[in-house]
Write a structure and sequence with these properties.
The complex is a heterodimer of chains A (about 325) and B (about 290). Chain A is built from 14 helices and no strands. By secondary structure, chain A is mainly alpha-helical. In chain A, α5 crosses α8 and α11 packs antiparallel against α13. Chain B has one domain: MetI-like fold (Orthogonal Bundle), CATH 1.10.3720.10. The chains are: A mainly alpha (about 325), B mainly alpha (about 290).
Chain lengths: ~325, ~290
């Protein structure tokens, strides 16, 4: 296991370096450069030149990358030239919102997906199973922003049960916080459960045909115990895999959902920095999100290896 | 890239009884809808439609009438015309981006699966870097730097599809290379080019095509999401995503302005998913899997 961790860690470093390089080079796609964006349309060439010199933009690219990376490694991701806030401050302030949103979404997604998968697997081929499999397939074609609109219309405009936009920190008022969080989390969960259900269902159908399930039945164990303990346990591996695969989509979905529901999370920070052309924030957030994503995938890989010995020994 | 990962993850073959080889009525309904949308998008200029950008401030959010079959939007623009011109954008981006992906990714994947060795490691490694970014974040960041245009949007989404196509092509090539007909061709002294183009390509093409259709659906969703956020195609070009975004503003007074483009978009995405899925089942589900 230790060798496996070391191998994966060695692989992690070049990927992270490449990610930082790509994030840095993206800024060079900018027509004109950062100095123009900061100074605006009325800038005189002399002012632009002076600012470029101050910011080191007249240095060669590799030098700028090296010095930028040096700052980043010391935890200095730069400072917004609009609000004066550092990238790290802005991100740490908003991170709890995004994490709460994604966790809630995953919990709701599992709460819908797992029982449905079990119910379908038990009666595979029945009308219920066919209906649910069909619905899951249909749900895969509903983009996040469509379900968001639908839920807002239903629960905020028509029924007036829940607020459409807004946010209160959990520490201030947990109930109000959850009221603001329900619709965004449900929106994300609606995109999550079909994948969870589809994969877990086919997994369970295979598991239920195993001999040890027949043995458990012969022993006279309760059906619920067989299903939730004996049959679900080997599928935990599958659930980890799905969660790992889902992270990327979940981050993208959270970005859209946060913007629609006006939640002050990382996604909204990123979209907002694009609207206001706050490119320092944009670059810092993209780098942090990508690095976080790489590290999360790394953790999922480790978890996966810990659950399944075949992976850390053989070629998976 | 909303459903891209799902279609990979959900790719575990089910019991053989479910592997239907027939194409049901749903499949044909999907084909009909796709033909309808394509025809409307191609013939948009010839159809007797009002201009999709002409505003009529006296006729704002007008209900359906003879002049405006589906009514007008918040700026008095004809809803039907905007839907049809929006189909153009969705289909242009939705088809061109995966074409970029299938060309580059398919080629790289076949070469990597055929030649193996260091080339394969480099290709797979560089694709891993591209996959290290959450897809939507990367698209957003690049469009923010480059500026909004249909061309840039198509290219970025296209490049993002490369890793997925590469994997599909490589996986298919890896299994095919060991088959008798390839070994026979090698024994007969066929060149690498000939083996790749005449023996492997026809067999790799079908799984790639099925995956292509699924990626069209994903691309339409991504373009829609970006335009919905106001970061996709620049106004006044109408796109389904931006129409839904504008319709959101008037959800209380005229929900149909959001729901009409939403329905059209859902049906289109569903059609591509249905046809892609049916094709994949037809061409042996295991080949499309990773």
């Amino acid at each position: 296991m230790l060798g496996f961790v070391a191998r994966r860690l060695l692989y992690l470093v070049p990927v992270l370096v490449a990610v930082s390089l790509l994030t840095f080079l993206m800024a060079s796609l900018l027509p004109g450069d950062l100095a123009y964006v900061i100074l605006g349309d009325q800038a005189t060439p002399e002012k632009v030149e002076a600012l470029r010199h101050d910011m080191g933009l007249d240095q060669p690219v590799w030098w700028r990358y090296a010095s930028w990376l040096g700052h980043v490694l010391q935890g200095d991701f730069g400072r917004s030239f609009r609000t004066g806030q550092t990238v790290l401050q802005a991100v740490t302030e908003r991170l709890p919102v995004s994490i709460e949103l994604m966790l809630l979404a995953e919990i709701i997604g599992l709460a819908i997906g797992v029982p449905l998968a079990i119910a379908c697997a038990v009666r595979s081929g029945s009308a219920f199973d066919r209906f649910m499999t069909g619905s899951a397939f249909g749900m895969l074609s509903v983009p996040t922003f469509l379900s968001a609109i639908l839920l807002i219309y239903l629960f905020a405009v028509e029924l007036r049960w829940l607020p459409a936009t807004g946010y209160v920190p959990f520490g201030e008022d947990p109930v109000a916080n959850l009221r603001f969080m329900v619709l965004p989390a449900l929106t994300l969960a609606l995109a999550e459960w079909p994948g969870i259900m589809r994969v877990l269902r086919s997994d369970m159908i295979a598991t239920l045909q195993e001999d040890y399930i027949a043995l458990a039945k012969a022993k006279g164990l309760k059906a619920s115990r067989i299903l939730f303990v004996h049959a679900l346990k080997p599928s935990s591996l599958t659930l980890v895999t799905i969660t790992g695969i889902n992270i990327g989509r979940l981050i993208g979905g959270a970005l859209i959902v946060e913007t629609i529901f006006a939640l002050p999370g990382i996604g909204r920070l990123l979209v907002g920095s694009i609207y206001t052309r706050d490119l320092v924030i944009l670059q810092g957030v993209v780098l942090l999100v990508a690095a976080g994503f790489v590290i999360m995938n790394f953790i999922v890989d480790l978890l996966y290896a810990a659950l399944d010995p075949r992976i850390r020994h053989g070629h998976a | 890239m909303a459903t891209l990962e799902l279609s990979i993850g959900g790719e575990i073959p089910v019991t053989s009884a479910r592997r239907k080889r027939r194409l049901g009525p749903l499949f044909w309904a999907a084909i009909c809808w796709m033909v309808l949308v394509f025809a409307a998008a191609i013939l948009a200029n010839l159809l007797p439609l009002p201009s999709p950008t002409d505003m009529d401030m006296l006729e704002r959010r007008a209900p359906a009438s003879w002049a405006h079959w589906l009514g007008t939007d918040g700026l008095g623009r004809d809803e039907l015309a905007r839907l049809i011109y929006g189909a153009r954008i969705s289909l242009i981006v939705g088809l061109c981006a995966p074409i970029i992906g299938i060309t580059i990714g398919g080629t790289l994947g076949m070469l990597a699966g055929y030649f193996r060795g260091r080339f394969e490691s480099i290709v797979v490694g560089s694709m891993d870097v591209l996959l290290a970014f959450p897809p939507l974040i990367l698209v957003l960041a690049v469009t923010a730097y480059l500026g909004q245009s249909v061309l840039y949007l198509t290219c970025i989404i296209g490049v993002l599809g490369v890793p997925a196509f590469m994997r599909v092509a490589r996986a298919a090539t890896l299994t095919l290379v060991r088959r008798e007909f390839v070994i026979a061709a090698q024994a007969l002294g066929a060149t690498h080019t000939r083996i790749l183009l005449r023996e492997l390509l026809p067999n790799v093409f079908l799984p790639l095509l099925a995956f292509f259709l699924l990626l069209v659906a994903v691309t339409i969703v991504v373009e829609g999401a970006l335009s919905f956020l106001g970061l996709g195609v620049p106004p006044p070009i109408s796109s389904w995503g931006s129409m839904i975004g504008e319709g959101r503003e008037s959800l209380e007074v005229a929900p149909r302005l959001a729901f009409m483009p939403a329905t059209v978009m859902f049906l289109t995405v569903l059609s591509f998913n249905l046809v892609g899925d049916a094709l994949r089942t037809l061409t042996d589900p295991r080949q499309g899997a990773l």
